[in-house]
Amino acid sequence: MKQIALFPGSFDPFTRGHEDIVLRGLKIFDEIIVAIGFNSQKNKRYFEIDYMEQKINETFKDIPEVSVIVYSELTASLASKLNASAILRGLRNTTDFEYENSISQVNRDLNKELETIFLITSPELAAVNSSIIREVHRYGGNIDKYIPYTL
């Protein structure tokens, strides 16, 4: 049976760290669906969601095992609809673990068949953070080395 993982996030923006998790995840899963969601904790996106969908598709254009969707529902419900057996997440540090652990437990409660797989961020990408990248960009800094596409 084909193993499908859902890689959800707001991806505002999608970074080289995110790309690294997807590429490494392909060693574990047959297919990865990058799912751009709306984060209810954030009032407004910095990069438009359609633009980010286009850029992520561009990043993986030569890798047919990766697809990109936009969604606005519970991640556990989406995983069921897409026959995903796992949620793929990256962890940079213990703060990420605390946050992601709580989410994974709720997702598991909502969908008993759903596992969350955590990959530790590659050391050279551990400092890459979407919030910091947005600030650098907002104030005119060059973010090319932090993102896998051209703005």
Automatic annotation (TrEMBL):
GO molecular function terms listed in the Swiss-Prot or TrEMBL record: ATP binding; pantetheine-phosphate adenylyltransferase activity
Coiled-coil region: none
GO biological process, one term: coenzyme A biosynthetic process
Pathway(s) the chain acts in: Cofactor biosynthesis; coenzyme A biosynthesis; CoA from (R)-pantothenate: step 4/5
Superkingdom of the source species: Bacteria
GO cellular component: cytoplasm
Stated role: Reversibly transfers an adenylyl group from ATP to 4'-phosphopantetheine, yielding dephospho-CoA (dPCoA) and pyrophosphate.
Protein name: Phosphopantetheine adenylyltransferase
Organism of origin: Roseivirga spongicola
Gene this protein is translated from: coaD
